[in-house]
Structures are given as C-alpha cells and as structure tokens.
C-alpha cells in the first residue's frame, strides 16, 4: 500500500490521529483553568465583564472539549487494531493507568461539565463556581494520568517481566512517578497554559484592532500578556530541567536533538542551524557556538559529550526530524518570551492597548502555541524510536499482524473524516472567536428552565389549581 509496510503505515496513522488530538487537550486544559479564574473574579469583584468573558469562552470550550473527546476515543481503538502486540505486552501496566484517567479525570469533567455550561441560573453562583473548578481539576488530572502513561514508556520503572513476556507492575508508585514524569507533566501543563494564553491574547488583540474601547477585549488581552510574561521564563527553566533528565535517561534522543553525530571529548558546540546529513553523519552548513552545548548540558565548557557514533545505527532515532522539530519548539518558546517582555514594556509605557504593530504580532502568534506543542511531541516520540518502551520493546515488535492494505485503507478514511469533521469544528470555533465580546454575553441556554422533552402537556388549571370541569 503506497509502497509502505504495515509498520510504517500504522506509525503514520497513529501520528496523524494523535496530532489532531493533542491540540484540543492542550487548549482545553488551559481554557478550563482560565474559565475558573474568570468565574472566581466575577464572584470576588461583582464586575459583570468577567461573567461576560466567562460566557464568551465557555462556548468555545464546549466545542473544543467535544472534539478532544471524539479524537481521543479513536486513538484508543488503535491499540487493539494496529498495536495489539504492544497492548498485550504492556497492558498490565498502562491499562490500569488509562482506566484511572477515565474513572477519575474524565468522569469528573463529564459530571460537572453540564453544570458549568448550563447551571448558573439553576444551582447558584457558588455551586456553579465549584463545578467550574471541578472541570478544571478534571482536565489537569487527565493530563496527569496520560503523561504518567507516556512517561513510563519513555523511562520505565517499577516493573517486572512475567514468564509470557508481559510487563507487570511491582511498584505502582514507581510506575506512576517514573523518572521523567514530573518534568514532563510540568512542561506539558505549562505549554497548555501558554497555548491558551496565546489564543486568548490573539482574540483580544483582534478585537482591540477593531475597537480599542472594548472592555472585554482589553481584559482578556491583558490577562493573556501577563500569562506570557510570567509563564514563558518558567517554561524555559522547566524545559531545561526536562532536557537534563532526558540526557540522563535517553541520551540518544538528546544527541539527535543537538545534531551530535560525532562525540566531542573536549566540549561540544551548540548547533543553532544546519542541515542534518544522516548519510555522511554530519550537519551541513552548520551555524554553531563552540562548547556551548557542553555548558548547557553539563555546566562545563570542556565537558565531553558522547555522540551518535557511540550508538548502534539500528538503534538511532531519525536525526533530521528530531533536530528540526526541537528547533521549532525552542524558537517559538523564545518568541513567546519576547512577546511577554515587550508587553511588560508597553504596559509600563501605558500603551499596551494602543500599539497596533504589537497587537498584530499578538494575532499572528495566536496559533504558534499549537505548533510548539506538536513540535515538542514530535521531538519526544520520534526521538524515542526505535522503541515503544524505551530500551525494552521496539516499535517493530509492537505492531499487530495486519496487512498494509487494511492499515492504508483506514488511514485514508481517517484523513477524510478528520479533515471534514474537525475542519468544520475548527471553522465554527473561529467564527465564535471572530464575534467580539460584549455586555450581557449570552450563555448556552435560556435563563429559565424549559419543559423537559417527552412530557405530555396536561390540562390547564385555573388560578386556584383546580382542573376544569367537563361540560
């Protein structure tokens, strides 16, 4: 099928579906917390503008949350269709963790989502705020369990292998809190917050360009810029700590990220840009800073760094993809840092809402958070190759015994359905964002309860509650 084997087609299919899926949780994690903040500010201050913004963004959250759920369900089926051997081998470990995600996080989200979306006039402001907090907590717990599963695959711990070759847990604390999990959880949650801040900032900037006096647009833009200014430096520090952890447990991934085909016994350069040449084992047209990579990774200019020449070729990750995806992520991260720094300067000058070039830049930066998240996941997942469970189970050993034609046919179906379904959903979200926030922003339901569907209307009573007498 297309000249590709079933293994490569299965990898492409999973990469395609997870790329669509990850952008929705990355948005909903941050947006759920933003909704909780807006709700809390409305209760604390009594200012109607915060409730208006809450109603504005909760409609967008509802659509994004729904698309995230649908795209996630599709991914879970692939474990049984394309990756059944992987499911059999690691199911005793990751199965319970994914079950905990459904039983705790998803049920928490689903249980309180309806109250958050429709219940303000029915349950009262305080209980409604509590429901909003529960939805935000649920989105965080979902990230907790999914990152625990993926981190265990990157840095497996707390396991044994039974007599039929299955991974079984011997220490659940070690399984859940495996060596890379804390770093990856912090890095991903901060990325979700920054992604949401960029979207909120872009929407606010768009409407400020149209109407500088829109109070809702001013507030959302200000809050987004505060998030970028505060969280971007923290994210860079968290990313550096995550990189050091990766160097300790997955050195080949870092070698590919840095483009170090050769070892450097007396200090490794930081290669800023270049063209990886895997055939010749070098970086062509490299722009580099001598010994800076050793300083960043080992905190010593002259510290030796091993290269991919120390790794058997069949165990090396694809350098070109990892090298460039890592630079896309880093480049966007520093662009967000610059955006936050400029916003602080403009805020100090009291021109934050008047600098039209900056507002246009904020609009252009709106989707870059999603690009950075995708680039980060590509770096993580492609850099792990050729393993599904790092160092223990290869991708080739994990695939189902399935024909290439079957995988190719389902891949085509996914592409068609995904672009139609999620394209329509994304278009609708963009239409909602194009609508400016205004006073008395409507929610998703009428203020008063309506008659429940399926209940037959009875006879009309008189003012005293008596039924009419038949004539």
Strand order of the largest sheet: 1-2
Total beta-strand segments: 6
Distance between the termini: 78 Å
Rounded mean pLDDT score? 86
Secondary-structure element pattern, one letter each: HHHHHEEHHHHEEHHHHEEHH
Poorly predicted runs of 5 or more residues:
446-450, 452-456
Helices, by number, come to 15
Q: In percent terms, what proportion of residues is strand?
A: 5-15%
The major beta sheet can be summarized as:
2 strands, antiparallel
| Percent of residues in helices | 55-70%
Which structural category fits the helices and strands? Answer: mainly alpha
Shape: globular
Over all CA atoms, what is the radius of gyration? 26 Å
Oligomer: single chain
Please summarize what this structure is:
This protein is mainly α and 471 residues long. 68% of the residues lie in helices and 6% in strands.
Keywords, please?
471 residues; two-stranded antiparallel ribbon; two-stranded antiparallel sheet; mainly alpha
Explain the overall architecture.
The model is unreliable at 446-450 and 452-456 (pLDDT under 50). Helix 1 packs across helix 7 (181-210) and helix 7 (181-210) crosses helix 12. The protein is built from 15 helices and 6 strands. It has a two-stranded antiparallel sheet. It has a two-stranded antiparallel ribbon with strand order 3-4. Strands 5-6 form a two-stranded antiparallel sheet. Strand 3 (270-277) and strand 4 (282-289) form a beta hairpin. The protein has helices at residues 6-45, 48-81, 84-118, 120-123, 125-154, 172-176, 181-210, 215-249, 251-258, 292-298, 319-348, 356-365, 368-384, 395-398, 404-434, and strands at 159-161, 167-169, 270-277, 282-289, 387-389, 393-394. By secondary structure, the chain is mostly helical.
